[in-house]
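Blackboard transcription, Thursday session:
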Amino acid sequence: MSPWIGDFFEYDFLMYALFGTLFLSITCGIISPLIIARKNAFMGAAISHSTLLGLAISLSLFHTVQALPIFISTLIITVFLTLFLAYSTFRQKIPSDSMIGIFYTATMALGIIIHTLFAKDKGDLLSFLFGNILLLTREDLYLSMFVLVVTALGILWPMKKWLFLTYDEEGAITSGIKASLFHYAFFILLSFLIVTSIKLAGTILVETLLLVPGFFALKFAKNSKQTFLYSIIFSTVFASLGIVLANAFGLPSGATLAVVLFAGLVVSLFLKKVYNLIRLR
Amino acid sequence: MSEIILRAEKISFTYDQDLVQGPLTPVLKDISFTLKKGESLGVLGPNGGGKSTLMKIIAGLLKPSSGQIFFNEIPVQDYTNYPFNFFSYVPQNSELNTILPVKVEEFLDFSVSLYKIKNKNLIDDLLKMVGVFEKKSSLLSTLSGGEKQRVLIARAMINNPRLLLLDEPTKGLDSKGQDQLLSLIEMIKTKNQTAVMIVDHNINQIIKSCHNILCLNKQHHWHDHRDFLTKDILEDIYHCEFEHLLIHEKDLELNKDQHHHDGHQFCDHDHSEREINSTNHPFIRRKK
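(Written on the board underneath:)
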């Protein structure tokens, strides 16, 4: 067996990383087209950056090995911050990007200060900024599985309502869909996903997982079902490839995932262009 | 006497302070009107006059600062939830977010699933009715403005509403497209006895096709049967002079000498103070 793959069977943390990546990439594939279509790309970045404040507080309160308490505490703080952001941006006339920009720089800065003051000896913040698969535990695997199930139920089950709201929000509201409920649910799901992905991809690079699959799918799909299917397939294939390459070359997982996904997108778009040129001749 | 489908009583609206720069000024003030079954109400007025805001208030998208709305003579607050089943709202097609690739039939299916309608032929029948059946499998984003508007109207008819709220349906269409769309709306109104409230900039067409007219410019409004609309009223609402306006193929100038008979709707509140203060709006008539 190739050492690239063999390592994943030999070391537990690599197996957790591989399956964790698989579950999280499917989740990101499901939610990614909606993030782009709902024009929430910047909101995703804001949530992921604000997790740093939650992490800094959680690391001050718990020991680094206490994965579950750190996760729960970070999640609660991030959900609270996200709900505030969601409330401030729901059907408002002021452009939401300015509010989001102010919010995420402030929370990130506060996170860095809290970490420096109270948790400097409890883990390297860089690991959380850019991801480190060495931090992954069995609990993280279960959590990523849980997030996948919750997201699949929350997005795929009422899919037509999500699409209706995304395509024609006012039409959907006047047809009886509770837009505010979906708005808040979307951001709670997003914060669940981002907090779970921190160790794998990092707070900064998790944005790649959230955006690239959806962007790819929207460039190639011909209808809404295809969009979600392509997004899930792209996300799963390239994220798994990224984690294998990260291990093979000893690279940081978050950065490798980001580069592999981006490369996959660029190559796909290039091939599409070439195909179109050949077809036109 | 035909039943009253929609009644608005002294609707006022002011945006929250944090949404606008400067002091709070009401966008709408004491707007009252009624709409009966099978009739149509055309809402005219300049850009920024509050037409779409009024439409959104009726549709439940905005809450009025004061005043009451009655659907079927029942105040909205007496309904457990806002009575979305009672009407259909057709937003401006420019407000559609076409990033996701959605086919016409998929788009209509969102509503069919939402209302749990079992009729499998409903989508085909509605698309045939609005004349875009051949576009059933096309992406909505690839349709022309007129075709998109027709699809939106088809979507609005899925729950067979008693009231149709149309926000600038002819926006961006050429004159032929505007005529065709308004004919379609007229056909729906006649066939289903649906009451129609329509906001539009096509003054001639609105006067021609709507029984009642609501002229609206922020805090000032006029509401009555189209036969009593005069050129002066429109010029006061739009703050400009019109050269060529027709109603029933006769010049609006001829309406000047028309006398009102009892039973027409007036603003039933006292405008006397405002009329003294703003003499350039003499069109608002007081109830005798």
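Lecturer's comment: The first strand of chain B starts at residue 4 and ends at 13.
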